[in-house]
Design a protein that fits this description.
By secondary structure, the chain is of the alpha+beta class. Helix content is 26%, strand content 18%. α2 runs parallel beside α3. 40% of the residues are buried.
Length: 328
């Protein structure tokens, strides 16, 4: 077996120049992703049981593997599934029973030693897990029911990650880490980026009026830079990206699911841009006692945040008011 990939000095140079770099083969998919897939199979089984008992679905399709079962059951039931499989909470409408997922296998992925070794090369040894953490399981757009169409399940319009956090974190060194669990190619909706766009400032974002990206905060077309490059990636590959790099998630025009995680890390002690949500110290050379190693404690921190926010105080991390002429 080949040794795991590492982040090289050449990778760091390319990141500085382009605002992103893809490291091939950083994860071992069979070893590192199998526990995550098993965990999400259990999440899907719970959803399917509820859809069947609620009269939304006639057949459970338990014989199918995860991605095929998700596609079949969501298509037949027309039910949403995104929040039940996501890590973070939405901005509005948070209730005490708003679905979310914080299983030990996902925590193991966020704190994977090989991944943290790589993150350390970009931001140093004091690593904080920023709470902007998502899993995105994109069904083919032609099959995606309208009730299940969200930013977690369909195309993602052009944006900068800095544009979807609060301004207090604008000068923080927040690193985006994106990787696919399934193959990600142009046909099924891989990411596309604008190399070098991180060298400019944050641009205006508007509420997107496209019915296929409705409600997303995105860069209006005149401000999206040219020279857009798609980034096909295989399971095991990892993308490291600046928070100012312009990027999008292409539409899934295939008949396959595209499943990915996008995570954020930053130096300990900086504002996260999502003060309402809990992060944690993932690595600290100077204060190892501060590192969170208990997945149950991580899940409890999100449960506490949900209970607090369910009292009716919505979070507000979109700074845009659509008063720019670009948003007309």
């Amino acid at each position: 077996m080949a040794p795991p990939a590492t982040v090289t000095d050449a990778d760091l140079s390319r990141f500085d120049q382009d605002g992103f770099v893809v490291v091939r083969g950083l994860f071992n998919p069979d070893r590192d992703f199998s526990p995550v897939v098993a965990e999400y199979e259990a999440v899907l089984s719970t959803l399917v049981d509820n859809w069947v008992s609620g009269g939304h679905l006639q057949h459970a399709h338990a014989e199918l593997p995860f991605t095929e079962r998700l596609l079949r059951t969501v298509t037949e039931s027309g039910q949403p599934y995104d929040l039940a499989m996501d890590i973070s909470l939405p901005q509005t409408g948070i209730h005490t029973d708003t679905p979310m997922h914080h299983g030990p296998a996902v925590f193991g992925l966020l704190t994977h030693p090989q991944l943290l070794d790589s993150v350390e090369r970009f931001i140093g040894p004091e690593i904080y897990s920023n709470p902007v953490q998502h899993t995105r399981i994109k069904l083919p757009e032609a099959s995606l029911p309208s009730a299940a169409r969200t930013g977690l399940t369909s195309r993602i319009a052009w944006h900068q990650d800095q544009g979807v956090i609060t301004a207090d974190a604008d000068n923080c060194n927040i690193l985006t880490v994106w990787f696919p669990i399934t193959e990600a190619d142009v046909e099924n909706g891989c990411l596309a980026v604008v190399p070098g766009s991180h060298q400019r400032d944050l641009v205006t974002h508007c509420v997107n009026a496209d019915p296929l990206a409705l409600g997303q905060i995105s860069i209006p077309d005149p401000l999206v830079e040219p020279d857009q490059v798609p980034l096909p990636m295989a399971p095991g590959d990892v993308l490291f990206m600046s928070s100012r790099t312009q990027h999008c998630g292409l539409p899934n025009q295939s008949e396959r699911i595209r499943w990915s995680f996008d995570l954020r890390y930053q130096p300990v002690g900086e504002p996260t841009g999502r003060e309402w949500f809990p992060g944690f110290v993932a690595r600290s050379r100077s204060n190892p006692e501060s590192v969170l190693t208990d997945p149950t404690a991580w899940a409890d921190s999100w449960n506490s945040a949900r209970a607090r926010l369910a009292t009716g105080n919505d979070v507000r991390f979109n700074r845009w008011t659509d008063d720019s002429p670009y948003c007309a």
